[in-house]
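S1.2 Input.
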Amino acid sequence: MMHTIKGVSILICVFPFAKEQAKKRHIQRWSKQLLAIFRLRHRVLNAELLPKRGGYLIAANHISWIDIASIQSFLPCRFVAKSEVADWPVFGWMAEQIGTVFIRRESKRHGKEIANQLETLLPNEPICIFPEGTSTAGDRVLAFRPNLFESAAQTQVQTFPMTIRYLDKDNQYSDATAFIGEMTLIDSIIKMLRTKSITVELIFGPSPATELDRKALAQYCEEQVRSQIK
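S1.3 Output.
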């Protein structure tokens, strides 16, 4: 609770006056502290594949609400999230303040509007999408929907698949962070706090050719991510 209040205070008192790099430092520091609260260790593999500057797309599998903090603690970036997240008390507002783009997945028209918005943003900054459209327990990968890859295909920025894995103290698959089904946010938080040791791995794969269309990009990223799920 105190960490959430701290985050809200930063967003209200600091962000309106901060430059972009300072905002990113605050986001990264707050995210690292959140992972520490849950005793969640952090491991990033193949980070050297990512460009040092400019925009690119990251396409990841989705397991939990903590995915975003896990990524932000390594790479502060903009996210595309389902519109329901915007309605979450406090956390929805916080997500909006850090630049999250919300999409109504059931609306093709809105999806096209979001794709156009991403085409404007992508050349200048990294953006992360969760193209499965929902979360899983982390033991499988659902089909990657191609719609959100349209912006990368049009702007021809690089697209990097990223696998998210949560592991237990024996380095084996763990469902401790899975946020699925009828589970509430409070249920998820309690389950995570009761788990003594969790490691999150972010595994990047190489970008394919930039001239691929959205369907080919989605298929490539899906295959790369699925290959890392054991």
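S1.4 Remarks. DSSP finds eight helices and seven strands in the chain.
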